[in-house]
Amino acid sequence: MGLITHKSLFCFFFFTSVLFILSWFFVLRSTGRPLFVDFGILPNSGLLANADIENSDESPYTNVSIVEEGGGTHNQILSKCDSKKQVKVFMYDLPPEFHFELLGWKGKSIWPDIRSEVPDYADGLNLQHSIEYWLTLDLLNSEFAENLSEKSAIRVSNSSEADVVFVPFFSSISFNRYSKLKPNQKRSTNVLLQEKLVNFLMAQEEWKRSRGRDHIILAHHPNSLLDARMKLWPAIFILADFGRYPPTVANVEKDIIAPYRHVVGSYVHDSSDFDSRPTLLYFQGAIYRKDGGIIRQELFYMLKDEKDVHFSFGSIEKHGISQATQGMRSSKFCLNIAGDTPSSNRLFDAIASHCVPVIISDEIELPYEDVLNYSEFCIFVRTSDALKDKFLINLMRNIGKEEWTRMWRRLKEVEIFYEYQYPSKENDAVQMIWQAVSRKVPAIKMKLNKARRFSPTNVSRENLLLSASLPRNFG
Ligand SMILES: *[C@@H]1O[C@H](CO)[C@@H](O)[C@H](O)[C@H]1NC(C)=O
Ligand SMILES: *[C@@H]1O[C@H](CO)[C@@H](O)[C@H](O)[C@H]1NC(C)=O
Ligand SMILES: *[C@@H]1O[C@H](CO)[C@@H](O)[C@H](O)[C@H]1NC(C)=O
Ligand SMILES: *[C@@H]1O[C@H](CO)[C@@H](O)[C@H](O)[C@H]1NC(C)=O
Ligand SMILES: CC(=O)N[C@H]1CO[C@H](CO)[C@@H](O)[C@@H]1O
Protein backbone atom coordinates (compact mmCIF):
# COMPACT_ATOMS: atom_id res chain seq x y z
CA MET A 1 0.00 0.00 0.00
CA GLY A 2 2.72 2.42 1.12
CA LEU A 3 4.69 1.89 -2.07
CA ILE A 4 1.73 2.57 -4.32
CA THR A 5 0.78 5.78 -2.57
CA HIS A 6 4.39 6.99 -2.72
CA LYS A 7 4.66 6.27 -6.39
CA SER A 8 1.35 7.79 -7.35
CA LEU A 9 1.97 10.83 -5.19
CA PHE A 10 5.25 11.37 -6.94
CA CYS A 11 3.65 10.99 -10.38
CA PHE A 12 0.95 13.42 -9.46
CA PHE A 13 3.45 15.93 -8.17
CA PHE A 14 5.63 15.61 -11.25
CA PHE A 15 2.67 15.96 -13.59
CA THR A 16 1.35 19.10 -11.90
CA SER A 17 4.80 20.67 -11.83
CA VAL A 18 5.22 20.18 -15.56
CA LEU A 19 1.77 21.56 -16.15
CA PHE A 20 2.52 24.57 -14.00
CA ILE A 21 5.80 25.35 -15.76
CA LEU A 22 4.20 25.01 -19.18
CA SER A 23 1.31 27.27 -18.29
CA TRP A 24 3.73 29.89 -16.91
CA PHE A 25 5.62 29.76 -20.17
CA PHE A 26 2.50 30.29 -22.23
CA VAL A 27 1.27 33.15 -20.09
CA LEU A 28 4.59 34.97 -20.49
CA ARG A 29 4.68 34.36 -24.24
CA SER A 30 1.15 35.61 -24.69
CA THR A 31 1.97 38.95 -23.04
CA GLY A 32 4.53 39.48 -25.80
CA ARG A 33 7.33 40.09 -23.29
CA PRO A 34 10.59 38.26 -23.26
CA LEU A 35 11.15 35.98 -20.32
CA PHE A 36 12.47 37.51 -17.10
CA VAL A 37 14.08 40.70 -18.46
CA ASP A 38 11.97 43.78 -18.97
CA PHE A 39 13.82 45.70 -21.64
CA GLY A 40 11.41 48.56 -21.36
CA ILE A 41 12.79 49.81 -18.09
CA LEU A 42 16.32 50.19 -19.37
CA PRO A 43 16.96 53.81 -20.37
CA ASN A 44 17.07 53.85 -24.18
CA SER A 45 18.14 50.24 -23.84
CA GLY A 46 21.59 51.74 -23.49
CA LEU A 47 22.89 48.86 -21.45
CA LEU A 48 21.97 46.41 -24.10
CA ALA A 49 23.40 48.44 -26.90
CA ASN A 50 26.67 48.20 -25.05
CA ALA A 51 26.47 44.47 -25.13
CA ASP A 52 27.66 44.86 -28.67
CA ILE A 53 30.59 46.80 -27.31
CA GLU A 54 33.36 44.69 -28.75
CA ASN A 55 32.52 45.84 -32.23
CA SER A 56 32.17 49.48 -31.37
CA ASP A 57 35.00 51.90 -31.96
CA GLU A 58 34.30 53.76 -28.78
CA SER A 59 34.44 50.70 -26.63
CA PRO A 60 36.64 51.09 -23.61
CA TYR A 61 37.51 47.42 -23.94
CA THR A 62 38.42 47.01 -27.56
CA ASN A 63 42.08 47.87 -27.34
CA VAL A 64 42.80 47.14 -23.72
CA SER A 65 44.63 44.04 -24.78
CA ILE A 66 48.35 44.44 -25.22
CA VAL A 67 48.43 41.03 -26.76
CA GLU A 68 49.20 42.43 -30.15
CA GLU A 69 51.38 41.34 -32.99
CA GLY A 70 54.12 43.74 -33.91
CA GLY A 71 55.76 45.60 -31.05
CA GLY A 72 55.18 49.16 -32.19
CA THR A 73 51.52 49.49 -31.48
CA HIS A 74 51.09 48.06 -28.00
CA ASN A 75 52.51 50.99 -26.04
CA GLN A 76 50.33 53.39 -27.89
CA ILE A 77 47.30 51.29 -27.17
CA LEU A 78 48.12 51.11 -23.48
CA SER A 79 48.58 54.82 -23.08
CA LYS A 80 45.29 55.54 -24.76
CA CYS A 81 43.58 53.51 -22.08
CA ASP A 82 45.58 55.18 -19.31
CA SER A 83 43.98 58.53 -19.71
CA LYS A 84 40.57 56.92 -19.63
CA LYS A 85 41.08 54.78 -16.60
CA GLN A 86 43.20 56.85 -14.28
CA VAL A 87 42.49 55.53 -10.82
CA LYS A 88 41.83 57.97 -7.98
CA VAL A 89 43.56 56.92 -4.79
CA PHE A 90 43.04 58.16 -1.27
CA MET A 91 46.08 57.45 0.91
CA TYR A 92 45.87 57.32 4.70
CA ASP A 93 48.31 59.62 6.44
CA LEU A 94 49.68 56.81 8.58
CA PRO A 95 52.41 57.85 11.02
CA PRO A 96 55.96 57.42 9.67
CA GLU A 97 56.60 54.40 11.90
CA PHE A 98 54.50 52.46 9.37
CA HIS A 99 56.51 53.49 6.34
CA PHE A 100 59.57 55.66 5.81
CA GLU A 101 60.77 55.43 9.40
CA LEU A 102 61.18 51.69 8.82
CA LEU A 103 63.78 52.67 6.25
CA GLY A 104 65.64 54.83 8.73
CA TRP A 105 64.10 58.14 7.65
CA LYS A 106 63.80 60.59 10.52
CA GLY A 107 61.60 63.49 9.55
CA LYS A 108 59.28 65.75 11.46
CA SER A 109 56.38 65.52 9.06
CA ILE A 110 54.35 62.49 8.04
CA TRP A 111 55.81 62.25 4.56
CA PRO A 112 59.21 63.22 3.25
CA ASP A 113 59.11 66.14 0.86
CA ILE A 114 60.11 64.13 -2.14
CA ARG A 115 60.95 67.21 -4.13
CA SER A 116 64.05 67.63 -2.00
CA GLU A 117 64.71 64.17 -0.48
CA VAL A 118 63.81 60.67 -1.52
CA PRO A 119 64.80 58.20 1.22
CA ASP A 120 66.50 55.03 -0.03
CA TYR A 121 65.00 51.60 0.33
CA ALA A 122 67.01 48.90 2.09
CA ASP A 123 69.55 47.25 -0.20
CA GLY A 124 70.42 43.72 -1.27
CA LEU A 125 67.75 41.06 -1.41
CA ASN A 126 65.35 43.33 0.51
CA LEU A 127 64.82 45.12 -2.77
CA GLN A 128 62.97 42.24 -4.39
CA HIS A 129 59.89 43.07 -2.27
CA SER A 130 60.18 46.87 -2.45
CA ILE A 131 56.84 47.31 -4.24
CA GLU A 132 55.40 49.20 -1.23
CA TYR A 133 58.09 51.84 -1.61
CA TRP A 134 57.66 52.51 -5.33
CA LEU A 135 53.87 52.72 -5.21
CA THR A 136 53.92 55.11 -2.25
CA LEU A 137 56.52 57.33 -3.90
CA ASP A 138 54.43 57.43 -7.05
CA LEU A 139 51.36 58.59 -5.11
CA LEU A 140 53.35 61.26 -3.30
CA ASN A 141 54.76 62.34 -6.61
CA SER A 142 51.36 62.66 -8.24
CA GLU A 143 50.82 65.85 -6.24
CA PHE A 144 53.83 67.53 -7.77
CA ALA A 145 54.06 65.95 -11.18
CA GLU A 146 53.69 68.38 -14.03
CA ASN A 147 52.13 65.96 -16.40
CA LEU A 148 49.33 64.06 -14.70
CA SER A 149 48.09 62.60 -17.96
CA GLU A 150 51.00 60.15 -17.90
CA LYS A 151 50.00 58.73 -14.54
CA SER A 152 47.78 55.71 -14.05
CA ALA A 153 46.97 56.76 -10.48
CA ILE A 154 46.54 60.11 -8.81
CA ARG A 155 46.23 60.89 -5.13
CA VAL A 156 43.05 62.61 -4.01
CA SER A 157 42.62 64.18 -0.60
CA ASN A 158 38.90 63.55 -0.23
CA SER A 159 38.18 59.89 0.26
CA SER A 160 34.64 60.20 -1.08
CA GLU A 161 36.11 61.02 -4.47
CA ALA A 162 38.46 58.05 -4.45
CA ASP A 163 38.10 54.78 -6.32
CA VAL A 164 40.33 52.99 -3.83
CA VAL A 165 41.98 53.61 -0.47
CA PHE A 166 45.69 52.94 -0.18
CA VAL A 167 47.22 51.71 3.08
CA PRO A 168 50.87 52.79 3.08
CA PHE A 169 52.27 50.18 5.47
CA PHE A 170 55.69 48.89 4.36
CA SER A 171 54.93 45.36 5.48
CA SER A 172 57.77 43.59 3.65
CA ILE A 173 60.56 45.68 5.13
CA SER A 174 58.78 45.46 8.47
CA PHE A 175 59.01 41.67 8.24
CA ASN A 176 62.57 41.60 6.89
CA ARG A 177 64.04 44.01 9.39
CA TYR A 178 61.83 44.11 12.47
CA SER A 179 60.76 40.52 13.13
CA LYS A 180 63.46 39.83 15.70
CA LEU A 181 62.71 40.57 19.34
CA LYS A 182 64.70 43.40 20.82
CA PRO A 183 66.07 42.72 24.34
CA ASN A 184 63.26 44.52 26.18
CA GLN A 185 60.45 43.42 23.88
CA LYS A 186 57.82 40.75 24.42
CA ARG A 187 56.60 41.03 20.87
CA SER A 188 58.47 42.16 17.81
CA THR A 189 57.97 45.54 16.18
CA ASN A 190 56.60 43.75 13.12
CA VAL A 191 53.84 42.14 15.20
CA LEU A 192 53.06 45.33 17.10
CA LEU A 193 52.78 47.40 13.94
CA GLN A 194 50.33 44.95 12.45
CA GLU A 195 48.20 45.10 15.56
CA LYS A 196 48.25 48.89 15.51
CA LEU A 197 47.37 48.88 11.83
CA VAL A 198 44.33 46.67 12.36
CA ASN A 199 43.11 48.90 15.19
CA PHE A 200 43.67 51.99 13.11
CA LEU A 201 41.82 50.65 10.09
CA MET A 202 38.85 49.34 12.03
CA ALA A 203 38.32 52.83 13.42
CA GLN A 204 38.36 54.61 10.06
CA GLU A 205 35.16 55.80 8.40
CA GLU A 206 36.61 54.70 5.05
CA TRP A 207 37.05 51.16 6.29
CA LYS A 208 33.64 50.97 7.96
CA ARG A 209 31.95 52.31 4.87
CA SER A 210 33.25 49.51 2.68
CA ARG A 211 34.35 46.95 5.28
CA GLY A 212 37.72 47.32 3.62
CA ARG A 213 36.66 46.07 0.22
CA ASP A 214 38.08 49.09 -1.58
CA HIS A 215 41.33 49.15 0.38
CA ILE A 216 44.69 48.31 -1.16
CA ILE A 217 47.09 46.57 1.20
CA LEU A 218 50.64 45.57 0.33
CA ALA A 219 52.09 42.28 1.49
CA HIS A 220 54.60 41.32 -1.16
CA HIS A 221 56.93 39.26 1.01
CA PRO A 222 55.14 35.91 1.46
CA ASN A 223 55.59 36.15 5.24
CA SER A 224 54.67 39.79 5.64
CA LEU A 225 51.41 40.78 7.32
CA LEU A 226 51.20 37.29 8.76
CA ASP A 227 49.14 38.32 11.80
CA ALA A 228 46.92 40.95 10.23
CA ARG A 229 46.05 39.24 6.94
CA MET A 230 43.23 37.19 8.48
CA LYS A 231 41.59 40.37 9.75
CA LEU A 232 42.13 42.53 6.71
CA TRP A 233 41.18 40.01 4.06
CA PRO A 234 38.21 41.87 2.53
CA ALA A 235 40.81 44.32 1.17
CA ILE A 236 42.70 43.91 -2.07
CA PHE A 237 46.15 42.54 -1.39
CA ILE A 238 49.15 43.16 -3.60
CA LEU A 239 51.15 39.95 -3.34
CA ALA A 240 53.96 37.94 -4.85
CA ASP A 241 51.83 34.79 -4.94
CA PHE A 242 49.01 33.02 -3.12
CA GLY A 243 51.16 30.18 -1.80
CA ARG A 244 50.72 30.94 1.89
CA TYR A 245 47.15 32.23 1.79
CA PRO A 246 43.91 30.28 2.15
CA PRO A 247 41.89 30.83 -1.05
CA THR A 248 39.16 32.69 0.83
CA VAL A 249 41.63 35.26 2.14
CA ALA A 250 43.45 35.89 -1.12
CA ASN A 251 42.67 34.82 -4.65
CA VAL A 252 43.24 35.90 -8.21
CA GLU A 253 39.77 37.44 -8.61
CA LYS A 254 40.14 39.80 -5.69
CA ASP A 255 43.86 40.46 -5.43
CA ILE A 256 46.79 41.59 -7.53
CA ILE A 257 50.03 39.82 -8.25
CA ALA A 258 52.99 42.16 -8.56
CA PRO A 259 56.37 41.24 -9.99
CA TYR A 260 59.45 40.99 -7.80
CA ARG A 261 61.99 43.69 -8.39
CA HIS A 262 64.76 41.89 -10.19
CA VAL A 263 68.08 41.75 -8.36
CA VAL A 264 70.33 41.23 -11.37
CA GLY A 265 70.83 44.35 -13.46
CA SER A 266 68.91 45.14 -16.64
CA TYR A 267 70.65 44.05 -19.82
CA VAL A 268 70.74 47.42 -21.52
CA HIS A 269 72.67 46.96 -24.72
CA ASP A 270 71.85 43.34 -25.41
CA SER A 271 73.37 42.44 -28.75
CA SER A 272 73.51 38.74 -27.98
CA ASP A 273 71.78 36.18 -30.13
CA PHE A 274 70.94 32.50 -30.19
CA ASP A 275 74.46 31.46 -31.12
CA SER A 276 76.31 33.80 -28.79
CA ARG A 277 74.62 32.36 -25.71
CA PRO A 278 76.51 29.10 -25.16
CA THR A 279 74.51 27.65 -22.24
CA LEU A 280 71.27 25.97 -23.26
CA LEU A 281 69.58 25.89 -19.86
CA TYR A 282 70.46 27.72 -16.64
CA PHE A 283 69.37 27.08 -13.10
CA GLN A 284 70.79 28.39 -9.89
CA GLY A 285 68.90 27.92 -6.65
CA ALA A 286 68.51 26.15 -3.39
CA ILE A 287 67.90 22.43 -3.66
CA TYR A 288 66.35 21.55 -0.34
CA ARG A 289 62.98 23.18 -0.19
CA LYS A 290 60.01 22.23 1.89
CA ASP A 291 57.44 21.79 -0.84
CA GLY A 292 58.23 21.22 -4.45
CA GLY A 293 61.87 20.62 -3.60
CA ILE A 294 61.66 17.04 -4.76
CA ILE A 295 61.26 18.09 -8.34
CA ARG A 296 64.43 20.17 -8.13
CA GLN A 297 66.39 17.11 -7.06
CA GLU A 298 64.87 14.88 -9.71
CA LEU A 299 65.61 17.42 -12.42
CA PHE A 300 69.13 17.79 -11.13
CA TYR A 301 69.81 14.06 -11.57
CA MET A 302 68.17 14.13 -14.98
CA LEU A 303 70.12 17.13 -16.27
CA LYS A 304 73.47 17.02 -14.53
CA ASP A 305 75.23 15.10 -17.29
CA GLU A 306 74.02 17.29 -20.16
CA LYS A 307 77.05 19.29 -21.20
CA ASP A 308 75.44 22.63 -22.07
CA VAL A 309 73.25 22.78 -18.97
CA HIS A 310 74.18 24.82 -15.92
CA PHE A 311 72.41 23.42 -12.89
CA SER A 312 73.81 24.34 -9.53
CA PHE A 313 72.64 24.83 -6.03
CA GLY A 314 73.15 27.71 -3.71
CA SER A 315 71.26 30.95 -3.45
CA ILE A 316 72.11 33.94 -5.58
CA GLU A 317 73.26 35.68 -2.43
CA LYS A 318 75.95 33.14 -1.75
CA HIS A 319 77.29 33.00 -5.26
CA GLY A 320 77.13 36.65 -5.97
CA ILE A 321 74.73 38.56 -8.09
CA SER A 322 77.38 39.22 -10.71
CA GLN A 323 77.86 35.51 -11.32
CA ALA A 324 74.11 34.99 -11.74
CA THR A 325 73.97 37.97 -14.09
CA GLN A 326 76.76 36.51 -16.19
CA GLY A 327 75.14 33.07 -16.16
CA MET A 328 71.71 34.25 -17.26
CA ARG A 329 73.05 36.54 -19.96
CA SER A 330 74.99 33.71 -21.53
CA SER A 331 72.06 31.24 -21.49
CA LYS A 332 69.26 30.69 -23.96
CA PHE A 333 66.75 29.40 -21.42
CA CYS A 334 66.42 29.94 -17.68
CA LEU A 335 64.61 27.44 -15.47
CA ASN A 336 62.06 28.51 -12.88
CA ILE A 337 61.08 25.63 -10.66
CA ALA A 338 58.55 25.91 -7.86
CA GLY A 339 60.31 26.30 -4.56
CA ASP A 340 58.74 26.74 -1.16
CA THR A 341 56.50 29.36 -2.75
CA PRO A 342 55.11 29.17 -6.29
CA SER A 343 56.88 32.41 -7.31
CA SER A 344 60.42 33.68 -7.02
CA ASN A 345 62.44 36.61 -8.21
CA ARG A 346 64.34 34.26 -10.52
CA LEU A 347 61.66 34.68 -13.20
CA PHE A 348 62.08 38.44 -13.18
CA ASP A 349 65.87 38.12 -13.17
CA ALA A 350 65.51 35.96 -16.27
CA ILE A 351 63.29 38.53 -17.97
CA ALA A 352 65.75 41.32 -17.14
CA SER A 353 68.53 39.17 -18.64
CA HIS A 354 66.47 38.36 -21.75
CA CYS A 355 66.90 34.66 -20.97
CA VAL A 356 63.72 32.87 -22.09
CA PRO A 357 62.04 31.59 -18.90
CA VAL A 358 61.04 27.93 -18.69
CA ILE A 359 58.41 27.74 -15.97
CA ILE A 360 57.82 24.50 -14.09
CA SER A 361 55.38 25.57 -11.42
CA ASP A 362 51.81 24.42 -11.91
CA GLU A 363 50.39 26.82 -9.34
CA ILE A 364 52.21 29.97 -10.39
CA GLU A 365 50.22 33.17 -10.84
CA LEU A 366 51.81 35.79 -13.03
CA PRO A 367 51.53 39.58 -12.94
CA TYR A 368 49.10 41.23 -15.39
CA GLU A 369 48.24 37.89 -16.98
CA ASP A 370 44.80 39.26 -17.83
CA VAL A 371 46.39 41.55 -20.43
CA LEU A 372 49.65 39.81 -21.22
CA ASN A 373 50.20 36.57 -23.13
CA TYR A 374 53.11 34.95 -21.36
CA SER A 375 53.35 32.18 -23.95
CA GLU A 376 54.92 34.72 -26.27
CA PHE A 377 58.06 34.89 -24.16
CA CYS A 378 57.92 32.00 -21.69
CA ILE A 379 57.76 28.23 -21.98
CA PHE A 380 55.45 26.44 -19.58
CA VAL A 381 56.07 22.81 -18.70
CA ARG A 382 53.80 20.75 -16.49
CA THR A 383 55.57 19.24 -13.51
CA SER A 384 54.41 15.77 -14.49
CA ASP A 385 55.89 16.21 -17.98
CA ALA A 386 59.14 17.68 -16.71
CA LEU A 387 59.73 14.55 -14.68
CA LYS A 388 59.48 12.28 -17.72
CA ASP A 389 62.84 11.00 -18.87
CA LYS A 390 64.48 13.34 -21.43
CA PHE A 391 61.27 15.36 -21.90
CA LEU A 392 62.65 18.71 -20.84
CA ILE A 393 66.00 18.48 -22.56
CA ASN A 394 64.42 17.31 -25.82
CA LEU A 395 61.92 20.15 -25.66
CA MET A 396 64.72 22.71 -25.25
CA ARG A 397 66.87 21.24 -28.00
CA ASN A 398 63.95 21.29 -30.41
CA ILE A 399 63.38 25.02 -30.12
CA GLY A 400 65.17 26.52 -33.08
CA LYS A 401 66.90 29.81 -33.61
CA GLU A 402 63.89 31.48 -35.20
CA GLU A 403 61.45 30.63 -32.43
CA TRP A 404 63.93 31.54 -29.71
CA THR A 405 64.69 34.88 -31.36
CA ARG A 406 61.00 35.72 -31.52
CA MET A 407 60.70 35.13 -27.78
CA TRP A 408 63.89 37.07 -27.06
CA ARG A 409 62.56 40.06 -29.02
CA ARG A 410 59.32 39.96 -27.11
CA LEU A 411 61.26 39.82 -23.82
CA LYS A 412 62.98 43.04 -24.77
CA GLU A 413 59.58 44.62 -25.42
CA VAL A 414 57.93 43.50 -22.19
CA GLU A 415 60.83 44.04 -19.79
CA ILE A 416 59.64 47.60 -19.07
CA PHE A 417 56.51 46.13 -17.46
CA TYR A 418 58.74 44.70 -14.69
CA GLU A 419 60.85 47.78 -14.04
CA TYR A 420 60.33 49.60 -10.74
CA GLN A 421 61.71 53.10 -10.75
CA TYR A 422 61.29 56.58 -9.40
CA PRO A 423 60.09 58.72 -11.00
CA SER A 424 57.93 56.11 -12.57
CA LYS A 425 57.60 56.07 -16.36
CA GLU A 426 54.91 55.04 -18.76
CA ASN A 427 54.15 51.29 -18.67
CA ASP A 428 56.72 50.42 -16.04
CA ALA A 429 55.83 48.12 -13.15
CA VAL A 430 54.39 50.92 -11.04
CA GLN A 431 52.02 52.07 -13.79
CA MET A 432 51.14 48.48 -14.70
CA ILE A 433 50.17 47.73 -11.10
CA TRP A 434 47.97 50.84 -10.92
CA GLN A 435 46.35 49.77 -14.16
CA ALA A 436 45.72 46.35 -12.65
CA VAL A 437 44.10 48.15 -9.71
CA SER A 438 41.94 50.15 -12.05
CA ARG A 439 40.75 46.93 -13.72
CA LYS A 440 39.52 45.80 -10.29
CA VAL A 441 37.54 48.98 -9.69
CA PRO A 442 34.30 47.94 -11.44
CA ALA A 443 34.18 44.70 -9.42
CA ILE A 444 34.78 46.63 -6.19
CA LYS A 445 32.00 49.06 -7.01
CA MET A 446 29.66 46.22 -7.71
CA LYS A 447 30.46 44.57 -4.38
CA LEU A 448 29.95 47.85 -2.54
CA ASN A 449 26.67 48.63 -4.23
CA LYS A 450 25.42 45.15 -3.50
CA ALA A 451 26.33 45.54 0.15
CA ARG A 452 24.40 48.81 0.27
CA ARG A 453 21.12 47.29 -0.86
CA PHE A 454 19.79 47.36 2.64
CA SER A 455 19.55 50.18 5.13
CA PRO A 456 23.07 51.28 6.08
CA THR A 457 22.26 51.32 9.79
CA ASN A 458 21.21 47.72 9.59
CA VAL A 459 24.24 45.56 8.85
CA SER A 460 23.42 43.58 5.74
CA ARG A 461 23.01 39.85 5.86
CA GLU A 462 25.92 39.36 3.51
CA ASN A 463 28.26 41.25 5.79
CA LEU A 464 27.14 39.31 8.80
CA LEU A 465 27.70 36.04 7.02
CA LEU A 466 31.10 37.11 5.75
CA SER A 467 32.40 38.22 9.10
CA ALA A 468 30.93 35.22 10.86
CA SER A 469 32.46 32.69 8.52
CA LEU A 470 36.06 33.84 8.77
CA PRO A 471 37.17 32.71 12.23
CA ARG A 472 35.64 29.29 11.72
CA ASN A 473 37.56 28.70 8.52
CA PHE A 474 40.90 29.51 10.04
CA GLY A 475 40.45 28.82 13.71
C1 LIG B 1 52.05 64.94 -21.12
O1 LIG B 1 52.12 63.58 -21.50
C2 LIG B 1 51.42 63.27 -22.67
C3 LIG B 1 51.45 61.77 -22.87
O2 LIG B 1 52.73 61.26 -22.71
C4 LIG B 1 52.03 64.05 -23.84
O3 LIG B 1 51.30 63.76 -25.01
C5 LIG B 1 51.98 65.53 -23.52
O4 LIG B 1 52.64 66.25 -24.54
C6 LIG B 1 52.66 65.83 -22.20
N1 LIG B 1 52.47 67.22 -21.84
C7 LIG B 1 53.45 67.97 -21.33
C8 LIG B 1 53.09 69.36 -20.98
O5 LIG B 1 54.59 67.54 -21.15
C1 LIG C 1 34.41 65.38 -0.06
O1 LIG C 1 33.57 65.13 -1.16
C2 LIG C 1 32.20 65.03 -0.83
C3 LIG C 1 31.44 64.60 -2.07
O2 LIG C 1 32.00 65.11 -3.23
C4 LIG C 1 31.72 66.36 -0.25
O3 LIG C 1 30.36 66.26 0.11
C5 LIG C 1 32.55 66.70 0.98
O4 LIG C 1 32.20 67.96 1.47
C6 LIG C 1 34.05 66.68 0.64
N1 LIG C 1 34.80 66.85 1.86
C7 LIG C 1 35.77 67.74 1.99
C8 LIG C 1 36.47 67.78 3.30
O5 LIG C 1 36.08 68.49 1.08
C1 LIG D 1 49.65 33.61 -27.06
O1 LIG D 1 50.91 33.47 -27.66
C2 LIG D 1 51.12 32.19 -28.24
C3 LIG D 1 52.55 32.14 -28.72
O2 LIG D 1 52.86 33.23 -29.53
C4 LIG D 1 50.12 31.96 -29.35
O3 LIG D 1 50.30 30.67 -29.88
C5 LIG D 1 48.73 32.08 -28.78
O4 LIG D 1 47.78 31.97 -29.81
C6 LIG D 1 48.56 33.42 -28.09
N1 LIG D 1 47.27 33.44 -27.45
C7 LIG D 1 46.40 34.42 -27.65
C8 LIG D 1 45.13 34.33 -26.91
O5 LIG D 1 46.65 35.34 -28.41
C1 LIG E 1 16.69 47.38 11.15
O1 LIG E 1 15.78 46.57 10.47
C2 LIG E 1 14.68 46.16 11.28
C3 LIG E 1 13.81 45.17 10.50
O2 LIG E 1 13.93 45.34 9.13
C4 LIG E 1 13.85 47.40 11.72
O3 LIG E 1 12.76 47.01 12.54
C5 LIG E 1 14.78 48.31 12.50
O4 LIG E 1 14.09 49.49 12.85
C6 LIG E 1 16.03 48.65 11.68
N1 LIG E 1 16.92 49.39 12.51
C7 LIG E 1 17.39 50.59 12.18
C8 LIG E 1 18.29 51.22 13.16
O5 LIG E 1 17.09 51.11 11.13
C1 LIG F 1 39.72 53.26 -30.14
C2 LIG F 1 40.76 52.53 -30.90
O1 LIG F 1 41.94 52.79 -30.77
N1 LIG F 1 40.32 51.60 -31.73
C3 LIG F 1 41.19 50.78 -32.54
C4 LIG F 1 41.28 49.37 -31.96
O2 LIG F 1 42.02 48.52 -32.79
C5 LIG F 1 41.49 48.39 -34.09
C6 LIG F 1 42.32 47.36 -34.85
O3 LIG F 1 43.35 46.85 -34.07
C7 LIG F 1 41.49 49.74 -34.78
O4 LIG F 1 40.92 49.62 -36.07
C8 LIG F 1 40.67 50.73 -33.96
O5 LIG F 1 40.75 52.01 -34.53
UniProtKB/TrEMBL annotation:
Molecular function in Gene Ontology: glycosyltransferase activity
Any single GO CC term annotated in Swiss-Prot or TrEMBL for this entry: Golgi membrane
UniProt KW Membrane keyword: yes
Compartmental location: Golgi apparatus membrane
Transmembrane parts of this sequence: 9-27
Name of the protein in its database record: Exostosin family protein
Pfam families hit by this protein: Exostosin_GT47 (PF03016)
InterPro entries: Exostosin, Exostosin_GT47
Topology term for the membrane: Single-pass type II membrane protein
Residue ranges occupied by any Exostosin GT47 domain in the UniProt entry: 84-394
PANTHER family found in the cross-reference section: EXOSTOSIN FAMILY PROTEIN, EXOSTOSIN HEPARAN SULFATE GLYCOSYLTRANSFERASE -RELATED
Alphabetically ordered keywords of this record: Glycosyltransferase, Golgi apparatus, Membrane, Signal-anchor, Transferase, Transmembrane, Transmembrane helix
Record-stated family: Belongs to the glycosyltransferase 47 family.
